[in-house]
Amino acid sequence: MRRHGIARAILAGEFVSTFRPSNQHRRASLDGMRSGGMMRRVGDMRTIYGSHAAIAPFRLLRPARVEDAAAALADGGVCLAGGIDLVPAMRAGRRVDSVVYLGGIAALKSIERSASALGIGAGVTYAQLAGDAAIATALPDLAAVWRGVANVRVRRAATIGGNVMAGNPQYDMLPALMALDAKLVFAGANGRLETADAASASWPGGVLAFVEIPLAPARRFVFERGYKPVISVAACAAGPMARIAIGCAYERPVCRSIALDGEAAALADAVVRDLPEPLSDWIASGAYRRKLARTLIARQLRALGRP
Amino acid sequence: MSAPKSIAPELVGIALTLNGRPLRKSVAPEAMLADLLRDECGLTGTKIGCDQATCGACTVLINGAPAASCATFAWQADGAAVTTIEGLAAQGALDPVQEAFKAKSAFQCGYCTPGMIMLAKALLAENPAPDRATIRDWLSANICRCTGYQMIIEAVEDAARRMREVAR
């Protein structure tokens, strides 16, 4: 079916494969990227396939301090840590005047444990999240889940902060942090730190410096990622309460806190009734997402020990 | 507050160690590591397959960690040690991983092989005796359209054996 679609498009002349001067083939549209397809309507072959040759020139800033990065960000720069999100976007035509490279800021790579919380720097990679001894001791479920996210090469480049700040509803870090009731700590150009709940509707500006995950004994965390891109469900239980975060189904992940005072199916019903209407798009209808949410939330609650 | 360290709008000066030798270059901010290696340094062993950081044919090691050189800007290797497939047999003798790929016929068209070997090098440096599940997990980062992977997995097991024998 997909092949027919492409063939039809080529016959209709929608894909232009002649060579164009470099300034034109660099002008691929952001819309093309958002549509998620490898093919875009206009450009030479390099542009059609989103080649790295299509990346437009940019200015590079390599601050050594987080407040300098925040100043550059306020100046219109775009942050790059591992480049897992930004580089494909640039390849697909996103124009960036100034790239602010965060990889040289040592302060963003710290992992600190206090009695009540684990502070993880925004520049900590997925590989560290999956393999660091302090994280594995404090949050073994989270570390175990992240051992299976992406591949070994991506895990070594992808950062916690990059995933959160990319703002892509398909991504995993924000629903996980919402379910874990984490706080996000942002650094401004003046060096001041501002905190927001991961689950809150708006965050302060600046550079995400670190995330703070509260620790509780016998806390369990589960994350169903196998139904992406339709839906993902992260759930965390501590004592009589649980937090459930839904990814992929909204413009931004949605989180609900519930008391664990009933059977899994009834609790899931109540959560789903309380959720806004999920997205209907080319991936799935809102009705299907809602149905899947009920099933997966109940399954996660059972995994967390509800009857 | 000092101004951010700015090296732009034109070229970025970088200094790295490439296959054990120092390299200094001025690169455009948008220049990719794969192009620096292939076009500037003539090291065409690193292949560009998908150009989407997905297939892994362009895998090189940056400070020992596997990285997709088609999606890594050249300046991201500034100050690092970069190893490409050409760096493995520098003294003339093949690396044990290369020997193992040869012995197990772990390639057909060969286009994915440099990336596979670099990935295997990184794995065996981190874990000299990986079990099959670990090998599969690592190799799932790279794509081979010819072999069906079985011989590649066997080659990595064989390479691990060879490297342990050398170490003994």
Please outline what is shown here.
Chain A is of the alpha+beta class.
Characterise this structure:
By secondary structure, chain A is of the alpha+beta class. The longest helix of chain A has 18 residues, at 286-303. In chain A, helix 13 (264-274) packs antiparallel against helix 14 (286-303). In chain A, the strands form three sheets. A five-stranded antiparallel beta sheet of chain A has the order 4-5-8-6-7. Chain A has 14 helices and twelve strands. Among the domains of chain A are: 1-54, no CATH class; 220-307, Enolase-like, domain 1 (2-Layer Sandwich). Helix content of chain A is 34%, strand content 20%. The model of chain A is unreliable at 1-48 (pLDDT under 50). Chain A starts with a helix and ends with a helix. In chain A, strand 6 (183-187) and strand 7 (193-197) form a beta hairpin. The relative contact order of chain A is 0.09. Chain A has helices at 2-11, 22-25, 30-34, 45-48, 66-74, 86-91, 126-131, 133-138, 140-146, 152-157, 160-165, 173-179, 264-274, 286-303; strands at residues 59-61, 78-80, 98-101, 111-113, 117-121, 183-187, 193-197, 207-214, 220-224, 232-238, 241-247, 254-259. Chain A is globular and about 55 Å long. Chain B is an alpha+beta fold and 168 residues long. Chain B has a five-stranded mixed beta sheet, covered by helices on one side. The longest helix of chain B has 18 residues, at 150-167. Chain B is globular. Chain A binds chain B through residues 38, 49-52, 55-65, 67-69, 71-72, 83-84, 87-88, 90-91, 98-101, 103, 151-154, 156-157, 189, 191, and chain B through 1-9, 12, 28-30, 32, 34-35, 51-53, 56, 59, 65-68, 70-73, 75-76, 119, 122-123, 137-138, 140-141.
